[in-house]
Amino acid sequence: MAQTFSRGPVSGTAVKQDGKRKPFLLDLYSTAVGKKYVMAITGILLLGFVIAHMVGNLKLYQGRTGPGVYAMDEYAVWLKNLLYPAFPESGVLWLMRSGLIVAVLLHIHAAYGLTIINRKARSVKYQSSRDYEVANFASRTMRWTGIIVALFVVWHLADFTFGWVNPNFISGEVHLSVVASFQRVPVSIFYIVANIALGIHLFHGVWSLFQSMGWNNPRFNVWRRYLATAIATVIVVGNVSFPIAVLAGIIDHPAA
Amino acid sequence: MTTQNHGTLTNLTLEIWRQTGPDDPGRFVTYEIPEISDGASFLEMLDILNERLIEAGEEAVVFDHDCREGICGTCSLMIDGRAHGPQRGTATCQLHMRTFSSGDTIVIEPFRASSFPVIKDLMVDRAAFDRIVEVGGFISAATGGAPDGNLIPIPKPVADAAMDAAACIGCGACVAACPNGAASLFTGAKLAHLNLLPQGQAERFKRTEAMVETMEEHFGSCTNHGECEAACPKSISIDVIAVMNADYRKAKFKNRKSLSRV
Description:
The complex is a heterodimer of chains A (about 260) and B (about 260). Chain A has about 260 residues and is mostly helical.
């Protein structure tokens, strides 16, 4: 049974060490628990965006507020000029965008790092089939739903921000661009599938972030699951309703 | 005399992992159990198989066991893909054959994790747990005469929560059941046990940082599936993992502050 493990000294304990220590945040991020904090915190930021994005898009249902003026386009202008003139035009928008870009990159980097750690932790797999008792579909597929959502975001930007894959894209005419895109059935189907993947991702992610951050209180623990279910449901129902409403002809558009 | 109302199971097939040593790739070998009392424990069933193997001049199946009353944490085994078998909150030694039915095929594999190398057959080396406990699984106590009982007041709910965490027997089922081979439930249980009590406060943050970082040298990370809680023979809640995660963050700040005073 004599087995020796080679390991360095435990870092960061309250013992004076020779040499330089890593900067605090890098030291924290180099640990797996630190990466989980990053997953949780960036997850909260991205979740905030997803909720605001869905709520903002409800403007689609408002249609025209005047001749040729869509509520959606007015909302887009408002977003662009948020806090103007205190901040430069599009300044706050870009501040939020940079925050989101950093959050996405960190979320993916931490997930990648954790996946590598976890693969190493069981180099020889079980040779018989495992019988999982409580791990659910959502928790088992986080990596896949995450990849689907990431690819979807790329498509989504190409569709509505840059207009590369939307032949009827008109910059600034958000409402008309959205309607034109969703009238293509395959695009709507891809959009719906991606949003269901997002919902599955959130169902595990929202619950999971409380554990990762150690936000645990026996009185409220049961509500963590309810909250995750509620958020995932609201996001999926809201987002999936847009392409369906466009295809069903409920959304206001010039040909109507 | 009370009559024992035990039945008999017939025609069991065992698929047991045989591996001659750490470097052998290993394989499943099939054994037939024509008849066994349903009152036999799972390990007694393996004992009976081993007696038969020894009589036939074959090598006995090596497996870990000690107290056989569910408190020592020595027994292990993945039985039909579950750590400690199909019954919740039960160590393998407390699992009885009445849980199975005649004609069943039972697959038995060792616990698997990179830091739990197989020694032989179903026996694995769980010394990595000792490495974690070494760096913080203790408290400082004054020596000398025994203190009076109940000298340190502890609120009952706190004592209960610490006791629930202290139920950990260190068997490694949490690591075995975890899809990531993480030891968060084990380390969380040790930390919650000591960190919640007044006696554990002196080393609280040093312990937390040292134990978590030693754990990470050997094991994977937690993705909150909850498989460990389901496999734990003591049904320790994953709440202890949340306690660990919260205390680790506090420890990083507090220890940094202490460092500046060294």
